[in-house]
């Protein structure tokens, strides 16, 4: 019996975060049976707008919020379902996340994990979605002000773009996997607006070299690199919860200095490999193809990745 | 949006004691199935919301086959469809009753 239980939990731990649904990620991340959902699917709090467009709604509007335990520690969590409407911020999904963050601010005793997987604002509910992103960012700032750690976990199929990119950047700390992508304007949007010569969104190597997890980690846009597994993100979340900066003037000044220094060092580069060369990486072409362990070892040697800003 | 409401009188109650379960996601070619143990044991209702028009008879056939096989007495089943194929629908329904076999 023990052997079977161990094997089951090993396969759960090694399941891909990238391929999992939001509910599977919560099940894999949190202690078994510890998750209590707020506004579960049976409450049917779903988008009132999508039917106007003859589009199907989801019972949870693609946003799952609640409370659970991470390695025995109580946490509040929100997970976006990137497969439903691109994990978008909309009236209901946004309000659920804002509510969770405000509860975190008011309680001020539980950290928050945001399992982001989103292309940004839902275009069918754009005004509500934009407002939701603004409210989310304010709620994160207020929660951090109250001493709450808000940690973003980025490794889903939709990445974290638009409002989700802004949300991640507002968090106390960010973990990302190789498959994770982080940015504001997504590849397809750049191509649509500026042309395929400017950015070819079908060129996956280009997309990942600009927005992908390894680049983000190497230029300080993410604070730790997670393996693309349930255990990988669990370890990353636990690691970051121990390393949360205070939300004060010093942290913001450190962040300003970090970004200014990055701009002056790397602002003139036209590719990821150029940046990696300046960062002192001997064989920048190899970064893309090395395995996770080699990459973690490499990142550990690059100076200036860990900082007091955010 | 097409709303299809189906009613059945299965021979046996659904197994297990789970109060509710959800499987699948609303994505292209996929669907979500919400199961709730809220009806009398001799009843089963299935409500489908789908953006795809003209497949009412296919839904009826797939769901009737499922009810015959699984006998989901007592379950209120609600579906948000993203244009799933009949085999995917059948698979999700069976996954759903399997999850309801759990304890809570």
TrEMBL record, chain A:
Its EC number is 4.1.1.87. Residues 1-256 form the CoA carboxyltransferase N-terminal domain. Coiled coil: none annotated. It holds the Pfam family Carboxyl_trans. Keywords: Lyase, Transferase. InterPro entries: AcCoA_carboxyl_beta (IPR034733), ClpP/crotonase-like_dom_sf (IPR029045), COA_CT_N (IPR011762), Malonate_beta (IPR017556). GO terms for molecular function: lyase activity. This is Malonate decarboxylase beta subunit. It comes from Inquilinus ginsengisoli.
UniProtKB/TrEMBL annotation, chain B:
It is found in: Cytoplasm. Pfam families: ACP. Keywords: Cytoplasm, Phosphoprotein. The keyword Nucleus does not apply. The keyword Cytoplasm applies. This is Malonate decarboxylase acyl carrier protein.
């Amino acid at each position: 019996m023990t052997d079977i239980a161990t094997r089951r939990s090993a396969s759960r731990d090694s399941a891909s975060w990238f391929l999992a649904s939001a509910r599977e990620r919560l099940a894999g991340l949190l202690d078994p049976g510890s998750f209590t959902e707020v506004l579960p699917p049976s409450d049917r709090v779903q988008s009132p707008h999508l039917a106007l467009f003859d589009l199907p709604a989801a019972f949870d509007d693609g946003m799952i919020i609640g409370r659970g335990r991470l390695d025995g520690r109580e946490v509040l969590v929100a997970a976006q379902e990137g497969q439903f409407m691109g994990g978008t911020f909309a009236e209901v999904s946004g309000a659920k996340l804002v509510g969770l963050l405000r509860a975190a601010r008011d309680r001020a005793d539980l950290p928050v994990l945001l399992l982001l997987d989103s292309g940004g604002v839902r275009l069918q509910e754009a005004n509500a979605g934009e407002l939701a992103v603004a409210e989310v960012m304010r709620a994160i700032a207020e929660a951090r002000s109250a001493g709450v750690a808000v940690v973003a976990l980025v490794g889903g199929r939709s990445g974290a773009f638009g409002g989700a990119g802004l949300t991640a950047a507002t968090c106390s700390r960010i973990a990302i996997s190789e498959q994770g992508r982080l940015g504001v304007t997504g590849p397809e949007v750049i191509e649509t607006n500026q042309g395929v010569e400017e950015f070819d969104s079908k060129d996956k190597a280009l997309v990942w070299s600009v927005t992908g997890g390894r680049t983000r980690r190497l230029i300080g846009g993410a604070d730790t690199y997670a393996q693309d597994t349930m255990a990988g993100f669990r370890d990353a979340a636990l690691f970051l919860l121990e390393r949360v900066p205070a939300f004060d003037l010093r942290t913001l000044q450190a962040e300003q200095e970090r970004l200014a220094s990055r701009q002056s060092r790397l602002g003139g580069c036209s590719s990821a490999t150029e940046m990696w060369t300046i960062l002192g990486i001997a064989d920048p072409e190899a970064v893309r193809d090395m395995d996770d362990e080699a990459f973690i070892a490499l990142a550990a040697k690059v100076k200036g990745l860990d900082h007091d800003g955010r | 949006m097409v709303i299809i409401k189906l009613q059945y009188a299965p021979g046996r109650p659904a197994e297990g004691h789970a109060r509710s379960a959800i499987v699948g996601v609303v994505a292209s070619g996929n669907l979500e199935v919400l199961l709730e143990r809220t009806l009398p044991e001799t009843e089963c209702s299935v409500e489908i919301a789908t953006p795809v028009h003209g497949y009412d008879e296919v839904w009826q056939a797939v769901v009737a086959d499922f009810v015959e096989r699984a006998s989901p007495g007592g379950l209120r089943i609600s579906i948000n469809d993203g244009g799933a194929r009949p085999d995917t629908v059948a698979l999700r329904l069976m996954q759903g009753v399997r999850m309801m076999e759990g304890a809570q």
